Amino acid sequence: MMKKLSVPALLLTLGLTGKAWVPVESSSSGSSAPGWDIGSGAVHFERLCAGCHGSDGLALEGEGPPLAGSSWVAGPETRLIRIVMHGVRGPIQVGDEIHDREMPGFGPRLSDDEMASLLSFVRSRWGQPGAPITA
Fold first, then answer.
1. Is 24 among the domain residues?
2. Between vectors from CA 49 to CA 67 and to CA 109, what angle results, nearest 5°?
3. Domains identified in the chain, total number
4. Which residues of 93-103 are buried (b: 16+ CB within 10 A; e: fewer)?
5. Is residue 66 in a domain?
6. Residue 22 falls within a domain, yes or no?
7. Which of 1, 37, 51, 124 is most exposed by smallest CB count within 10 Å?
8. Is 109:87 a contact under the CB 8 Å cutoff?
9. Global pTM?
10. What's the pLDDT score for residue 30?
11. CA–CA gap between residue 58 and residue 50 (Å, rounded)
12. β-pair type (97-99, 102-104)
């Protein structure tokens, strides 16, 4: 069963700093492929990514670049995997905008299955729906 955060805990985690990391447990609800659990991927996204990229993928003002409509998300999966595992430093161009923020890498913080679920969620929501990224 998926673990839920209380509203105050969620606000503390995402709202105050936008960059806090909270360890999560994978959901054991049904997966369509090894490493792919849409609920788990969504939870990881909300806890690790939404503070900068926004829950809607459109980005928060002055924070990370938007994911929606981004060639960085829709492009080769190997590039997206490297970015999420190792992070990226600006300046980078996304669409018509230059972003000069640093994104931390999450490779040391997530298991292979958690990483695959997160990346599959991001790509299915804002990039290339279809086959999940597997661990």
1. no
2. 130
3. 1
4. ebeeeebeeeb
5. yes
6. no
7. 1
8. no
9. 0.70
10. 38
11. 10
12. unpaired
Within-domain flag for 25: no
CA atoms within 13 A on the CB side of 64: 27
| Residues recorded for the chain | 135
Instruction: Pull the structure tokens for residue 70.
Output: 């981004």
Residue 103 has what pLDDT? 93
CATH number at residue 44: 1.10.760.10
Q: Which residues contact 108 (CB under 8 A, 6 or more apart)?
A: none
Q: What's the token pair of residue 107?
A: 């490779």
- Of 43, 6, 3, 36, the closest CA to residue 21 belongs to 43
Q: For tokens 């990346």, what's the residue?
A: 119
- Per-residue pLDDT averaged across 99-124, rounded? 93
Containing structural domain, residue 13? 7-17+32-126
